[in-house]
Amino acid sequence: MQDLLYFSQQLINGLTIGSTYALIAIGYTMVYGIIGMINFAHGEIYMIGAYTALIAITGLATLGVAWLPLILLVALLCAIIVSSSMGWAVERVAYRPVRGRHRLIPLISAIGMSIFLQNYVHLAQGSRNIGFPALIDGSFRFGSSEGFQLSLSYMQITIFITTLICMIVLSLFISRSRIGRACRAVSQDLGMANLLGIDTNRIISATFIIGAALAAVAGLLLGMYYGSVDPLFGFIAGLKAFTAAVLGGIGSIPGAMLGGLILGVAESMTSGYLSGEYKDVVAFSLLILILLFKPTGLLGKPEVEKI
Amino acid sequence: MKTSVKKLALAVGASAALMAAGQAAAEIRIGIAGPMTGPVAQYGDMQFSGARMAIERINAAGGVMGEQLVGVEVDDVCDPKQAVTVANRLVNQGVQYVVGHLCSSSTQPASDIYEDEGILMITPASTSPEISQRGYELLFRTIGLDSMQGPVAGNYIVSQNPNRVAVIHDKQQYGEGIATAVRDTLRDAGVEVAMFEGITAGDKDFSSLVTKIKQANVDFVYYGGYHPELGLILRQARQADVSSKFMGPEGVGNKDINTIAGESAEGLLVTLPPSFDEKPENQDLVAAFEAKGEDTSGPFVLTSYAAVQLIADGIEQAGSQDPFEVAKALRAGTFETPIGTVQFDQAGDMESFEFVVYEWHSDGSKTSVN
User: Is B241–A149 a contact, with Cβ atoms under 8 angstroms apart?
Assistant: First the structure.
């Protein structure tokens, strides 16, 4: 009985962290799907989202606002607005001027952007950890065995539900809306979409903005879940989300979701049953294995040789 | 054209004269190397504040052999690569004495450079035993060793008669070193160590680890490492109803752990050097810090003060500014400092250094438990 509870607890832990990987991974995968490049500044956008949310929460607290839904809504909106503008700016500054050049050039300019943003936050907010208030506290308890109790915190439920809503909205947006259709067209053939009258610049900007908005949501959620932010907050999370995107098949949105969940569960099971020291080893070995047998990732489409 | 050449020549001549004048003014340059930025910058603040105060007070009292001390401050970000860079910078600036570095992993590579270049170094904070095991002639420290701190923590845990203990560390030289010492002390005393596991510094998600601690049903958790990770572990553990007692080394004992862990920091046990700032003989000095609006409660403020003072006393006693002579004088003598009477052994470690177990509170204060 205790073994089952322990397993379920590790599964819940893994799914929680996995769904936030998925949220961040969407940003990588969408940008790759459309322009075939990796946005290495994406982890920093997520970190800035977390900081903005924290600033908004602190601001509201000093104004005396105590109604939780309002605080969360305002924090979420602020984070999304600031992160999206950052996402847009990154595209304008680091990608558009060098688009169409050798593939390495935008890669390097994105890494430069990432270092810049990280250090900017270091300077503006200081390098210390800043505590994030636990706004959603408490948890459900299930079955107890030999002193071990399964707990599912309200925060974890919030993370699941929010991620689910974001994914559904995103899928509907991509499959139903005009911009979504244009996104799909541009990802199939940028040049042709351009010829057919789609404003490809606008679509590429939109992709960066959507990815950044989802990263901001993840920033707020994880800031609250972990309880502290620092300027290096985005680095590891960005790396993991990028891995999740590649694992699921970069360019594929359902792939990013699946990749995130698999990575999260693999990590928590490794530290649960083996040792925390091997967590990253197992996660990345899994990546290598999958890429060996399926180079395009789990749900990635094989690239058709264009003649 | 001609006049401008003349003007230029004049300017060059004047600035050369100025530089010469600068060098002629007698001064002893002391490098102060520690993190000004990065995740453990708050420890660096303690170090810089203590060293600056010592330089100020020694200069006010007439300097050393009639010469003024000048601090040359550099930022190593607590990063071994950066530590090597700043160590070389200090060498190029002609510094002969260094107070630093802070993190053991920075002190180790930097000390190689100082030893080669004939620079005397006193670290006020690095506690890794390996640092002084290499037979260096110019290396000293004004802090105890992990090998002293680990047994203090281990013996305290043993005295609480726990059934099962978990020992966690951050896989870094400092954290793993202390954690290993604690584990060995526990094993020797026959206490069951149910878990001995490393985490990755910089990680945020410890839910799996916390679940494991919960299942292992331990009553004591020892963590070797720094506050950013322990803060998160504490917070996530309390949220998951883990009621075990937590304990850590002085690397977790600062107010930032309260920002991260909040209420969960209540009751955390920390081994720290005794509060030198509470000693009656140091009250003048504490007042001087307070007059500048600086806090003396950090573990490295007065150890850094003592490091600067020891350099000054060493020079006076050797009657020479040659670092090798000063090192000999330091090994031979006994010195009165704010951290007590200091006597060095051959390795450059203090003959005795005491660690005390404190209980940490959620408002950032601490009370001694033994």
Answer: yes
User: Would you say residue B19 has pLDDT above 50?
Assistant: no
Residue A100 inside a domain? The answer is: yes
Q: Do B14 and B80 share a structural domain?
A: yes
Tell me the pLDDT band of B189, cut-offs 50, 70 and 90: very high
Tell me whether residue A201 is in a domain: yes
B347 domain residue, yes or no: no
Determine, for residues B214 and A148 on separate chains, whether the beta-carbon distance falls below 8 Å.
yes
- Kindly state whether residue B351 falls inside one of the protein's structural domains: no
Backbone angles phi, psi at B180, to 5 degrees: -65, -40
> Which of A127, A137, A227 is opposite residue B37, by nearest beta carbon?
A127
Report CB contact under 8 Å: B207, A275. no
Contacts of B65 (CB under 8 A, 6+ apart): B315, B316, B319, B321
Count the domains in chain B. 2
Q: Tell me what pLDDT residue A163 has.
A: 92
Asked if A10 and B204 come within 8 Å (Cβ–Cβ), the reply is no
Q: How many domains does chain A have?
A: 1
- Tell me, yes or no, whether B45 and B180 share the same domain: no
In a domain, B346, yes or no: no
Confidence of residue B38 (pLDDT cuts 50, 70, 90): confident
Q: Which residues of B177-207 are buried (b: 16+ CB within 10 A; e: fewer)?
A: bbbbbbbbbbeeeebebbbbbbbeeebbbbb
Residues in A closer than 8 angstroms to B207, CB to CB, are 13, 16-17, 268
The shortest CB-CB distance from B215 to any of A6, A235, A275 is to A6
B240, B171, B165, B127: CA torsion to nearest 10: -120
Task: Please name the member of A6, A236, A271 whose beta carbon is closest to the beta carbon of B202.
Answer: A236
The arithmetic mean of pLDDT across residues A189-197, rounded, is: 89
CATH number at residue B195: 3.40.50.2300
Measured between CB atoms, which of A131, A237, A275 is closest to B197? A275
Q: Stretch A200-228: mean pLDDT, rounded?
A: 92
Cβ of A243: how many Cβ atoms within 10 Å? 21
Whether residues B226 and B108 share a domain: the answer is no
Q: How confident is the model at residue B20 (pLDDT cuts 50, 70, 90)?
A: very low
CA distance B25 to chain A (A): 36
For residue B18, the model assigns a pLDDT of 46
Tokens linked to B127: 């506690």
User: Does one domain contain both B327 and B223?
Assistant: no
Q: Which domain holds residue A240?
A: 2-129+150-293
Strands of A97-147, DSSP E: 130-131, 139-145
| B36, closest residue in chain A (CA to CA) | A127
CATH number of the CATH domain containing A188: 1.10.3470
Residues 6+ apart with CB under 8 A from B129: B145, B146, B147, B177
User: Going by C-beta distance under 8 Å and a sequence separation of 6 or more, which residues neighbour residue B109?
Assistant: B80, B83, B84, B87
- Nearest beta carbon to residue B37 from set A122, A275, A279: A122
Residues B133 and B36 in one domain: yes
Q: Quick one: CA dihedral A112, A113, A114, A119, positive or negative? A: positive
Nearest chain A CA: its distance from B194 CA (Å): 13
B202–A232 CB contact, under 8 Å: yes
Examine residue B250 and state whether it is found in any structural domain, yes or no.
Answer: yes
Contact across the interface for A146 and B217, Cβ inside 8 Å: yes
Is residue B237 domain-shared with residue B363, that is, in the same domain? yes
Domain residues for the domain of B185 are: 147-272+356-368
Report yes or no on A139 lying in a domain: no
Q: What is the mean pLDDT of residues A243-272?
A: 90
A266 to chain B, minimum CA–CA distance in Å?
A: 11
Strand pairing category for B340-343 and B334-337: antiparallel
Q: Are residues B225 and B298 in the same domain?
A: no
